[in-house]
Design goal:
By secondary structure, the protein is an alpha+beta fold. It is built from seven helices and four strands, in the order αααβαβαβααβ.
């Protein structure tokens, strides 16, 4: 039993030392700090920051550089009023569309992660959501919202990202490191 305890203690020490050296990296720090934010200040995000987030998004990798996505960023507070409750009361919303055949959903996902990490680095909070999609794409109550998006022919609204200044600082949930295996 003592041997197991000391082995575990040694592993924790090694992991702690490894983690400390990893956290000295600005990019990895940003990744480790990002959390899904569900409460926002009542303060719209400045256009320049939304532009920076969008630019980071469209610089994500895509299959054969096809860039098969369409991004719509809602800044108009009248449009936001129609969907604010279902979008975590965020002051702004990023709508990500991809071809309806589903072949480029992964590319759109990579783009979303880039945008969320860029937002984190700018002091913004985000929460990716697929739950509201059915309502946003089918409800008569969301028709004005849908029409404002001007989604390209043959594309679908894949997910939305609530974005704004956080009014909470969520703790990290535990991660299951056993899901990673190193093949040597």
């Amino acid at each position: 039993m003592k041997r197991v305890f000391f082995c575990l203690l040694a592993m924790v020490c090694v992991l702690t030392i490894s983690a400390q050296s990893v956290y000295e990296n600005e990019v990895i720090n940003n990744i480790m700090a990002r959390r899904s934010v569900r409460k926002y200040l009542d303060k719209p995000v400045e256009h320049g920051k939304l532009e920076a987030v969008a630019l980071a998004g469209i610089n994500a990798p895509s299959a054969m550089n096809r860039q098969n996505w369409a991004v719509r960023i809602i800044e108009d507070q009248k449009i936001m009023a129609d969907v604010k409750d279902m979008c975590r009361n965020s002051p702004n919303l990023i709508c990500v569309c991809a071809p309806a055949d589903g072949k480029f959903d992964l590319d759109a996902g990579l783009m979303g992660e880039n945008m969320m990490l860029a937002a984190q680095s700018l002091g913004l909070g985000t929460c990716i959501q697929t739950g509201p999609i059915r309502f946003l794409t089918t409800s008569e109550k969301a028709k004005a919202f849908r029409d404002s998006l001007d989604i390209p022919e043959g594309y679908k609204l894949l997910y939305v990202i609530a974005i704004g200044y956080p009014d909470e600082k969520p703790n990290a949930h535990s991660r299951d490191a056993s899901k990673v295996k190193y093949i040597k």
